[in-house]
Amino acid sequence: MAKPALMPYEKAIELYEPVLGFEVHVELNTKTKMFSDAPNFFGGEPNTNVTPVDLGLPGSLPVVNEQAVKYAISLGLALGCSIAPSSRFARKNYFYPDLAKNYQISQFDEPIAFTGSVEVELPDGRLFTVPIERAHMEEDAGKLTHVGGATGRIQGAEYSLVDYNRAGVPLVEIVTDIIYGAEGDAPELAKAYVSTIRDIVVALGISDAKMERGNLRCDANISLRPRTAPGEPPAKLGTRTETKNVNSLRSVERAIRYEIQRQAAILEGGGTIIQETRHWHEDTGQTSAGRPKSDADDYRYFPEPDLLPVVPSLELIEVLRAGLPEAPVARRRRLKADWGFTDLEFQDVVNSGLLTEIVETTKAGASAQSARKWWTGEIARIANQRGVDASSLVSPLHVSELIALVESGTLTDRLARQVLEGVIEGEGTPDEVVAGRGLAVVSDDGALIAAIDEALAAQPDVLAKIRDGKVQAAGAVIGAVMKAMKGQADAARVRELVLERASA
Amino acid sequence: MSHDLTRLTASALAEKLRTREVSSLEAVDAHLDRIAAVDPDVHAFLHVAADQARATARAIDARRASGDLSADETGAARGGSASELAGVPIAIKDVLCTIDMPSTAGSKILEGWVPPYDATVVAKLRRAGLIPLGKTNMDEFAMGSSTEHSAYGPTHNPWDLDRIPGGSGGGSAAAVAAFEAPLALGSDTGGSIRQPAAVTGSVGVKPTYGGVSRYGAIALASSLDQVGPVSRTVLDAALLHDVIGGHDARDSTSLRDEWPSFAAAAREGAATRSLKGLKVGIVKELQGDGFQKGVTQRFEEAVALLTAAGAEVIEVSTPSFEYAISAYYLILPAEASSNLAKFDSVRFGLRVNPPGGGTVEDVMSATREAGFGPEVKRRIILGTYALSAGYYDAYYGSAQKVRTLIQRDFARVFADVDVLVSPSAPTTAFKLGEKLDDPLAMYLNDLTTIPANLAGVPGISLPVGLAPEDGLPVGIQFMAPAREDARLYKLGATLEALLEEKRGHPLLSEAPDLAPQEMFASEEGAV
């Protein structure tokens, strides 16, 4: 891929106003699929969690999953949306093998939730209101694996395999209105927005919300328009691109920054932006052209005749409203107070998009401070190194177990980092890694004393120094003992024992 | 003996089975023999499941002998109405999925496809102990009024083999009218049960939309399709409707109503024969110009019988019916263009690889080009156009508005009358090939039946006699408000009884006997 020209970010913002829009797809964690009784589970043997409905077999008919409707209503309410007294499913027609019917059942002109907003917090603590146009229900498509090409994409592939396990998984698509005014904070706003949506769906308990697994997917629309002199009317909106394959919070931010720089360079060079989808490449940090996308894409939407309108009772809506978790901003304020973090500590957590992880880790039993320390420290460091989101590396439950092991003295911090590494490598739970790698602290004084006596015997000069009251000389012995114990000893306890044995 | 068994109505045969005067195996064998004798000429069947039918019959006979037929099968659970039909053979329109027989919907694109499941109605038949004989011919994907659009060749009308048996369910109607099966299942999207019934002298019912599950019926137009019974008597249709009707959780559009026994309604109608207090509306827009003379004549005679039996008959007007065909031929193709998109060779059915391979799109395209017939392509193109951006409002949108107007017309006249009446079809059976090259003329044949589908109301067609000019059957259609199917069975059975009283025998007994005597002769000769 030739490296396209990029304009320096600051200059791009000086010349152009970025205008944003997001489509976030949330996979709901219902037991069964959106329109069939197949398990809502993918991964595993391809084409096993399917029914005639998911395979689009002739004669099969969809039936709406009631739980998915409830989840969609809850999400709509959490986004401050109005809930439609009656909404309809529609067919989106297109020929592509990822949906066996060759149409997707979605909602078009009558979404279940519309007109809301979400407050998100920028890194400097400012609040920004993102307008929500709608949230609608639809079914996910199957997964295509393109085989034989160099890139793993359809271009150049010899053949493609289709796995319909994902076909029919319930989705809610959240569509923002056009977002103006993000200015130079556009990349940070994008990340904060997606992070907030993630916090909301996790708090609602309606999605596993793992971006790296595609539970939460963001399509980022961006266009630039030239700035006009004060007093002049604003320029008309520029042509937008829609960046897909943005599978982490970090990528959301990077992709937006990249597109701003790329589009600015093209516009500045007198070129025009092509309305198209762009494919984000995490490894190169670039986007590449996908398929052209025009407003005239004709999906021949029409009301799905196999389904009745969705008409939730007012009572149901109120029950769901009463069950809503608190709004993200209020929640953040409360958590900050509860946890007793400093402003800086808390901002660090929010900006890392790790609020949810810390909440979940504390729910699993850890203290907020230890949870923060691990997530924003060692885990974030590894995530950074690997260019992934911290949340994709390890589960809050495992972090909490790890912290418990440190607090009980089973692990030192240093050992705990090794255990963390094992957990990330998929060696199992912290307990399993401790067992598998034999990493627990040796708390058997007998074993330590034997090692200490051996070390003291090997270094009679040191023993003499200690006996002379030069306690700092003990360091050499402690070092030798720790080495003999392969680091699996509590250094403080070793020091106590060394002094004890030396004076014996 | 076997010849006699095929002449019995389903209820009469069921009675003989119940008293064990005949066995289910004998009944099945009689019908298989009849199929072997006449179907080479009639071509009602695309698939005959002789071995399975005999095996099922033996099992039913054994269970009946041991007193082991379940309550559902003996009808005890439903007041004696629902499965009086245990052990009775039945023909199934090929649009319905059957786990043990190919289900092609009359299309090459599904040739040989055996579904991994039974349609809900088929499962219900089996539970009630009915015995599927095979699958009947139809216009491809139920698009047509003559079965000439079947990819497997047309079905011939048992009254005149040079004529069409109606469509799309010509196979089911012909099978029943030719005594190849006492009962059949059909599907009616714009008249595909009622029009074939009319032109073959049989009885056909399109139930209220949502009254019978569509799960497993290969969809033509989802908002119009409805599965229903085909038979030789009103009571038989009612008995079958009792078996297949009711809510199905797999079909979101199926109604949750508790339905009355339709067989009870039919029996009551046949017994009382009085129509006092019944208000009947003759639909002004569904008669007159364009209706064959003999059709109008027999229709009027039947209406006179209604009046004589105490019904109050008035003329009502439903002005929007004028636009019904236009609206129908936008809504149906629109839905069909989407419903038929799944036939792309990826998961099932025909696959045609273009020369030299190609992309998935090329394969889909080559498959659909080879697998669909001309009428199906015509409607897919029409429907795709009607739904396209920029045309949607003018075509699909306007058609939906007309549909609303038609529903309002029904609502308005049903405030005044209990049922509506019209001829079932404008003409008697036309000649094979006569309208094949003129799609519009073919479409016009459904003028009378389409409004009921657009409004979701039930309709029944029953034979009223033969048109003097051609000696072919004429049908009368009654329509009732949604959910009032029982009203149709009661009224239908009354009229049927009055007609038979007047005529002295069932109309179908006048049909030519197709069984070639030579067959028996040659069998004898072989001995």
Q: What's the SSE pattern of chain A?
A: HEHEEEEEEEEHEEHEEEHHHHHHHHHHHH
Indicate the mean pLDDT of chain A: 90
**Assembly of the depicted chains:** heterodimer
Strand content of chain A: 15-25%
Helix content of chain A: 25-40%
Q: What is the number of strand segments of chain B?
A: 11
Largest sheet of chain A: 9 strands, mixed
Distance between the termini of chain A: 72 Å
What coarse outline of chain A follows from CA principal-axis ratios?
globular
- CATH architecture descriptor name of chain B: Alpha-Beta Complex
Placed side by side, the strands forming the largest sheet of chain B appear as 1-3-2-4-6-5-10-11-9-7-8
Instruction: Look at the helices and sheets of chain A and give the structural class.
Output: alpha+beta
| Largest sheet features of chain B | 11 strands, mixed
The unreliable regions of chain B are 74-82, 518-527
Overall residue-averaged pLDDT value of chain B = 93
Total count of helical runs of at least 4 residues of chain A: 16
Question: Radius of gyration of chain B in whole Å, from Cα?
Answer: 22 Å
Largest interface (CB within 8 Å) is between: A-B, 30 and 44 residues
Number of helices of chain B: 19
CATH C-level class of chain B is Alpha Beta
User: What is the tally of beta strands of chain A?
Assistant: 14
Protein name (chain B): Glutamyl-tRNA(Gln) amidotransferase subunit A
Catalytic activity (chain B): L-glutamyl-tRNA(Gln) + L-glutamine + ATP + H2O = L-glutaminyl-tRNA(Gln) + L-glutamate + ADP + phosphate + H(+)
Active site (chain B): 93 (charge relay system), 168 (charge relay system), 192 (acyl-ester intermediate)
GO cellular component, one term (chain B): glutamyl-tRNA(Gln) amidotransferase complex
